[in-house]
Amino acid sequence: MIYDILGEELFNILHQGTERIKKEKYVRVLAHYDGDGVSSSIILLKLLEKWRIEYHLSFIKNLDNEGFRSLYEEDPNLFTIIVDAGSSQLSSITDYSNYIVLDHHFYEKRECSGININARDYGINGTREACGATMAFIFALVADEDNKDLFPFFMSGVMADKQDIGGLSGLNKKIYDEYNSYKIHHTLNLEGTVADAITYSIDPFFYGLTGHPDDVKKFLDNSAIDPEKNVIDLTTDENKVLGNKLALTILKNNTGSDAIKYLEEDVIYFEDIGFTSKELNSIIDGNARIGMQSLPVQYFLGDNSVGNEMIGNVKIFKTRLIDYIYRARSDLKEEKYLRYFYAPESEMAGPIAGAIALYTVKPDKPVIGFNAGSDDIKISSRGSRRSVSRGLNLSEVMKTACADAGGSGGGHDIAAGGIIPKGKEKQFLEVAGGIIKSQIKII
Fold first, then answer.
1. What pLDDT, on a 0 to 100 scale, did the predictor assign at position 263?
2. H or E, element range at 426
3. How far apart are the C-alpha atoms of 234 and 229, rounded to whole Å?
4. What are the residue ranges of helices labelled H in 119-254?
5. Residues 385-424, buried b or exposed e (16+ Cβ, 10 A)?
6. How far is the CA of 62 from the CAs of 134, 239, 418, 437, in angstroms?
7. I want to staple 363 with a disulfide (CB 3.0 to 4.6 A). Which of 69, 226, 332, 384 is the partner?
8. What is the CATH T-level fold of the domain 2-180, as seen in this structure?
9. CA-wise closest residue to 82 among 94, 70, 100
10. What's the CA gap between 329 and 337, in Å, rounded?
11. For 371-415, how does the pLDDT look when each residue is reduced to its tens digit (9 = 90+)?
C-alpha cells in the first residue's frame, strides 16, 4: 500500500493535493522540458483524463525567476501543477497561491502560499531516491492505487534522470518492488539489433565504436554473435561475451567503476505499450532533447498518428548527439579542478557532459558544458559518484558560481545546470573551480 511506503506526513500532503485538484474543471500543468519532466507530465495528464478534468500543458525551459514568472503568468488564473521543478522558483510567484509543486531538487526553504511537495522535505534523497516522475507517480497512487498502470512512465523518468545507475534505492526501489508487475530481462543496457545498438549507444557510450558502424562490424567479426540479432534475445553466453568486450572498450578510456555499472541492467518489457523500459526512455528523452516533447505526450495519450515521427526522432537525436560528443571531447579544456567545453545546442549540453564525464575521462573532476549561440549562456555540469562521495555538490557550485556571474543555477549534487550572461564564462569558471577545490581534493 502506498500509505505504508510513504508514511503519514507525505501521504497526507499528497492527499491534500489530489483533493484540491479534483475541485477544478480546468488545470494547467507546467513540467520541466527534459525526459523526466515529460514522463512526469504524461502521468499527470493521464490522471487528469481519468478525472475528466480539462488541461493545458506547457514545458519549462527557463528556470530563472524572471523566466519562470513570465511562463506562469501566461495563465495566472488557472490552477497549476508544477512538476520536476518549482520549489526553487517559488520566490518568483509569492503573490500567487493557486498551485501544487511536485519536485525533488535542492532548494532554499521559504514560506509559500500554495502547496509545495518536495521529496527532500520528507527525508528522501532527490538525487538518487526520487525524481520528478517519482513524485508524479506517488501523487497518482495516493489518488487511487489503480493508477499503478502508470508505472512505465515512472520508470522512464527514473532512467532519464539517471537514478537507475547502480540499482534503484530508497523510495524508487520501494515503488519498483511494490508496483512492477512486468516481465524482467537482465541484459546489456542496449536496444535494438546488436550492430545498431552499439552504433547508436549513448548511455553507455563506447568511445571509438559509438557512431562508427564499420568499426562496430570489425569489433563483432570475431565474437560469433549475429549483428542482426536483437539484444534482448541474446543467450546468457552471448551476453557475457559481448559484455566483456564492451567493458574492456570502456576501461581503455581510464574511466571509473560508475561506467561499468551502467553496462548491464534489468530491462522491463511493457506489454501494454509495446516497448521495453530502455526503448521508452530513449523515445521520451530523445524527443525531449530535440524540442519535440509534445510527440510522446500525444502518442501515449492515444494519438497513434505521431508514432512513426516520434520513433524516427530518436535516431535523429542520437546521430546528432554522437557527433557533438566526439567534437566536444576533442575540444575539451582542462582546468585544475574541472573540465569544460562548448556545445552547439543548449538542450545537448547535459547529455554531452554526461557521456564525456562518465565514459571518456577519469572520474576525478566534473565536466562543465556551455551552450553557444544565444544572448545568455546555459550551463550543464556532470560529476561522478566517486567525486560526490568525496564532497562534490554541483548544485551548490552552480548556484554560487552562476549568481556570482550575474545568473542563477542549481540542481543535483551529481548533475546541475544554470544560466549566466554571455561573456561571463571566465568569471564563472574561476568561482566554480574555487568551490570545487573547497569541496573535494582533486588528485
1. 87
2. helix 425-439
3. 7
4. 132-143, 151-160, 170-179, 194-199, 213-221, 236-251
5. bebbeeebbbbbbbbbbbbbbebbbbbbbbbbbbbbeeeb
6. 22, 42, 9, 29
7. 384
8. inorganic pyrophosphatase (n-terminal core) (3.90.1640)
9. 100
10. 17
11. 876 678 989 999 988 888 889 999 999 999 999 999 988 877 888
- How much is the pLDDT for 443? 46
Task: Indicate the pairing of strand 376-382 with strand 367-371.
Answer: antiparallel
Residue with cell 566534473: 366
Query: What kind of fold does domain 331-439 have according to CATH?
Result: Diaminopimelate Epimerase; Chain A, domain 1 (3.10.310)
Strands (E) across 253-297 are located at: 264-270, 275-276
Quick one: pLDDT at residue 430? 97
Task: Tell me how far apart the alpha carbons of residues 217 and 319 are, in angstroms, rounded to a whole number.
Answer: 18
Burial (Cβ within 10 Å: 0-12, 13-18, ≥19) of residue 66: exposed
Query: Looking at the DSSP assignment, which residues form a beta bridge with residue 334?
Result: 339
DSSP track, 228-246: TSBGGG--HHHHHHHHHHH
How far is it, in rounded angstroms, from Cα 127 to Cα 113?
A: 26
> Which amino acid is it at 197?
A
Peptide bond into 204 cis (omega under 30): yes
Q: Which of 123, 4, 150, 125 is nearest to 413 (CA)?
A: 125
Residue of 83, 142, 138 whose CA lies nearest to 116: 83
Q: Are 194 and 234 in contact (CB under 8 A)?
A: yes
The model carries a pTM of 0.78
Mean pLDDT, range 262-274, rounded to an integer: 88
The chain-wide mean pLDDT, for the chain, equals 92
Terminal-residue alpha carbon distance, the chain: 47
Nearest Cα residue to 318 out of 294, 343, 345, 283: 283
In the numeric block, which cell numbers belong to residue 276?
521495453
Residue 378 CA to residue 372 CA, distance in Å, equals 8
The pLDDT tens digits of the residues spanning 192-221 come to 899 999 999 998 999 999 999 999 999 998
pLDDT of residue 54: 97
Distance from C-alpha of 293 to C-alpha of 59, rounded to nearest angstrom: 8
Show me where the domains of the chain are located.
Answer: 2-180, 185-325, 331-439
